[in-house]
């Protein structure tokens, strides 16, 4: 880019030390320089566009990955919460004295996890 002004002055014959016949060659060099400069700017815009598209695609992929990780965390949170409540060793929980209390809790955990899993699948999070 800095050569454009100097080549233009040399091509127009504004430099006294350059003969008029030689300034014709400098005009040709200035034209070539301008064409090459435009090509370089075009390539620069193309590479910038490709880089921007690549960064956008990477962001979309990262968002999909984070959504999938969050879905699995939500799925794991359900049994963790239920088991956490039962791990507190309360004496006054009605299902603790029942012979079917323990299997009932496992059934509830399985049903809730299945419902959450289906919901996440339907919304394309898994």
What is the number of beta strands?
Answer: 0
Gross morphology is rod-shaped
Largest sheet: none
Give the proportion of residues in helices.
over 70%
- The SS-based structural class is mainly alpha
Which sequence of SSEs, written as H and E, runs from N to C?
Answer: HHHH
Would you identify the regions where 5 or more consecutive residues have pLDDT less than 50? none
Radius of gyration: 37 Å
Question: What is the typical, i.e. mean, pLDDT?
Answer: 89
The tally of structural domains comes to: 1
Strand content: under 5%
Distance between the termini: 53 Å
Structure characterization notes:
It is built from four helices and no strands. The chain has one domain. The model has no long low-confidence stretch (mean pLDDT 89).
Task: Summarize the helices and strands and which ones pair or pack.
Layout: H1 3-12, H2 20-86, H3 94-97, H4 101-122
Helix pairs in contact: 1-2, 2-4
